[in-house]
């Protein structure tokens, strides 16, 4: 009787099963794109590293200079390598977690090809100098719109898959996927708000302090919600799969998720400590950055403790090796981040190569190694075969690990060297190294070591790509993976309060949006609506038409990547550069140009320090003015003409952004431009530099000579 009942129950269950399949083709496509763009982005990064070691690697070519290739490198690694890796992992794990095929194969294909076209557009436009001049958000407005559209396609496909799922509970990895979709959409749209002047030229609607706050709210949280939360989701899926163990603590994962997404969004201002940002915003950024260590380490420990009982496998299985180092790098980076948000630590590390080391621990260790480990697990599964070579996988692991060490250790050392030399005074009270170039030449050997580390990492990645290829070649792709599961039945019996959210994708999405919105609104709205946060300075006037053109060239060439325009209130900086920077100086800067790294000196008080001819010769041959300089030369600036056809439209656009040009000024703006250009040209000719008024070099000189003049307290110490 009992046997008959069990047989009847099994037959009933079998009859209720729904049969479907998982699409491995989309996963394969994203995996291949991950490898291709990963190698491309890393090679560009290696070229950039070589350029800092020796300017000869700029090749005196406009589209190969450091200022144009560095944004290409960061965009390729973040959005092409990590982005495609993230999508590969999500398109594999999400259907299996909810026991349903992705909602739409068509949306998946649109997502894949749309994302690759966006990356291709970045590859074309950034070297050509089409940039908004905002770190990690350089792409111009048509591409920004395309990113938003494709991101919505991805989110729609994901959410609709959750709606038609067959598994009631939403596993923790899915929470991180949803938070990623919601937050990146908000960050991207707000930070990309701009008014276009032409197809590939636009200006941020925010200016100065407000633009800086929005940019680093975006910049910090692009790291948080593009490089961290989706990869935590992948960690929660692939580490248990690779270890064949359940997640260590479900309760810890709940605390980890909600505290992380709520706290992370507040931390952006710690990139702007000691700047013209209001003190209250800086303090908020510091407080929440320090709090971040708790949820971050909670996630790391949850991942590592999942491996308890299987640590013996770490010695023999490359997948686990990569994942253990990835989690360790995540822990290191998320410990270091809060430490760098302390003002006394930030005073030492900010604007130095320490920050470069910090971000590469995360990028190479956390994102890179987790991606490689995931692919080593995926390829044998999808191609129904064994990994081609465990030995090559181990070679890849050790080359990558050595590459990280050779990269970050010299950069930490370089960062400390820079900061100590910038701040050192003689017993008589003078700067010990008044010539900034002395602090640059001292660290060139460390730049060379960094390039060696980058080369090791790239070679390791190439070994990995070969191993993936040979693995795929030895098997056959299982394009349609058959599966079956009972349909989702009835309503969910909620036993714990958090299950009300976790079992409902729409509510989860809404609550995630609320959690990430609070911090941004609290920090941004007061700086935008309360005038005391950005007081104006009467002597600060709008840029002239020629200076606007020069500023466009400055942004196009990526000068902000090596030069800051923000003097902090330290004696070492005011002695070297002049009076510290005030928020009112930047009210007409669309976008702001404070920078985040000083490979060259700060330029906030550059105006009037040198004659026009100095700048002319410096751009033609930096070494002639500053022997030993690693700055590239810009001969095309002496040859190319500026266009004045769009000057009236540019003045009108700036007025729409709040810059107080008088009505009708458009009609005489070109005449004013020509008048100022003639004055600079005459000065250059008198000093033996023959040029024409409408050359780009003349416009750039006009902008450089304007910097700091309106502040009224510029130091007379020359920059070297």
UniProtKB/TrEMBL annotation:
It is an enzyme of class 7 (translocase). Residues 545-708 form the Cytochrome c domain. SUPFAM superfamilies: Cytochrome c, Cytochrome c oxidase subunit I-like. Binds 2 heme groups per subunit, denoted as high- and low-spin. Binds 1 copper ion per subunit, denoted as copper B. Gene3D superfamilies: 6.10.250.2250, Cytochrome c oxidase-like, subunit I domain, Cytochrome c-like domain. InterPro entries: Cyt_c-like_dom, Cyt_c-like_dom_sf, Cyt_c_oxase-like_su1_dom, Cyt_c_oxase-like_su1_sf, Cyt_C_Oxase_1, Cyt_c_Oxase_su1_BS, Cyt_c_oxidase_cbb3_su1, Cyt_c_oxidase_monohaem-su/FixO. Pathway: Energy metabolism; oxidative phosphorylation. This is cytochrome-c oxidase. The lineage of its organism: Bacteria, Pseudomonadati, Bacteroidota, Cytophagia, Cytophagales. The gene is ccoN.
């Amino acid at each position: 009787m009992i046997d008959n009942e069990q047989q009847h129950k099994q037959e009933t269950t079998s009859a209720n099963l729904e049969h479907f399949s998982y699409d491995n083709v989309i996963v394969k496509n994203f995996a291949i794109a991950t490898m291709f763009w990963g190698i491309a982005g890393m090679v560009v990064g290696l070229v950039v590293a070589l350029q800092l070691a020796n300017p000869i690697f700029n090749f005196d070519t406009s589209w190969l200079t450091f200022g144009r290739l560095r944004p290409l490198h960061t965009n390729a690694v973040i959005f092409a390598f990590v982005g495609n890796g993230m999508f590969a992992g999500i398109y594999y794990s999400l259907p299996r977690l909810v026991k349903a095929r992705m909602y739409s194969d068509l949306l998946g294909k649109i997502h894949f090809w749309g994302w690759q076209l966006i990356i291709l557009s970045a590859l074309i436009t950034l070297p050509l100098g089409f940039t908004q001049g905002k770190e990690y958000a350089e792409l111009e407005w048509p591409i920004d719109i395309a990113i938003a559209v494709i991101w919505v396609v991805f989110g729609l496909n994901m959410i609709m898959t959750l709606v038609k799922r067959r598994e009631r509970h939403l596993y923790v990895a899915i929470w991180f996927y949803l938070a990623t979709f919601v937050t990146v959409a908000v960050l991207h749209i707000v930070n990309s708000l701009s008014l276009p002047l032409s197809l590939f030229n636009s200006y941020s609607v925010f200016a100065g302090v407000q633009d800086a706050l929005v940019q680093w709210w975006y910049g910090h949280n692009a790291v948080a919600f593009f490089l961290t939360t989706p990869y935590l989701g992948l960690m929660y899926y692939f580490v248990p799969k690779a270890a064949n163990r359940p997640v260590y603590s479900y309760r810890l994962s709940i605390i980890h998720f909600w505290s992380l997404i709520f706290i992370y969004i507040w931390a952006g201002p710690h990139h702007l400590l000691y700047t013209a940002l209001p003190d209250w915003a800086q303090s908020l950024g510091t407080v929440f950055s320090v709090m971040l260590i708790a949820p971050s380490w909670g996630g790391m420990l949850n991942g590592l403790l999942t491996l308890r009982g299987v640590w013996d496998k770490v010695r023999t299985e490359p997948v686990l090796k990569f994942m253990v180092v990835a989690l360790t790098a995540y822990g290191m980076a998320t410990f270091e981040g809060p430490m760098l948000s302390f003002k006394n630590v930030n005073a030492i590390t900010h604007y130095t190569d320490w920050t470069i080391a910090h971000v590469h621990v995360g990028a190479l260790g956390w994102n890179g190694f987790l991606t490689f480990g995931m692919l080593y697990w995926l390829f044998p599964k999808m191609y129904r075969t064994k990994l081609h070579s465990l030995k090559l996988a181990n070679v890849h692991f050790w080359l990558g690990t050595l590459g990280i060490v050779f990269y970050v250790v010299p950069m930490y050392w370089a960062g400390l060297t820079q900061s100590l030399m910038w701040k050192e005074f003689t017993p008589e009270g003078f700067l010990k190294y008044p010539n900034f170039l002395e602090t640059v030449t001292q660290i060139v050997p460390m730049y060379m070591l960094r390039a060696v580390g980058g080369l090791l990492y790239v070679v390791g990645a190439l070994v990995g790509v070969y191993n993936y290829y040979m693995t795929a070649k030895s098997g056959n792709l299982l394009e349609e993976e058959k599966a079956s599961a009972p349909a989702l039945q009835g309503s969910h019996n909620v036993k714990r309060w958090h299950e009300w959210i976790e079992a409902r994708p729409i509510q989860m999405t809404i609550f995630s949006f609320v959690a990430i919105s609070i911090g941004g609104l609290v920090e941004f709205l007061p700086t935008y609506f309360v005038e005391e946060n950005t007081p104006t300075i009467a002597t600060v006037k709008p840029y002239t038409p020629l200076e606007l053109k020069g500023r466009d060239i400055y942004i196009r060439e990526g000068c902000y990547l090596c030069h800051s325009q923000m003097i902090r209130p330290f004696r070492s900086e005011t002695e070297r550069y002049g009076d510290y920077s005030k928020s009112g100086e930047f009210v007409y800067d669309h976008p702001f140009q404070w920078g985040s790294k000083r490979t060259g000196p700060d330029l906030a008080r550059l105006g009037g320090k040198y004659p026009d001819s100095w700048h002319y010769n410096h751009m033609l041959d930096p070494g002639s003015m500053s022997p030993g300089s690693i700055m590239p030369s810009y001969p095309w600036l002496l040859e190319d003409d500026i266009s004045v056809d769009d000057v009236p439209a540019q003045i009108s656009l700036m007025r729409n952004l709040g810059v107080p040009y008088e009505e009708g000024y458009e009609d005489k703006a070109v005449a004013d431009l020509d008048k100022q250009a003639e004055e600079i040209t005459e000065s250059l000719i008198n000093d033996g530099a023959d040029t024409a008024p409408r050359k780009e070099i003349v416009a750039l000189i006009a902008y450089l000579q304007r910097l700091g003049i309106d502040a009224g307290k510029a130091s007379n110490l020359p920059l070297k």
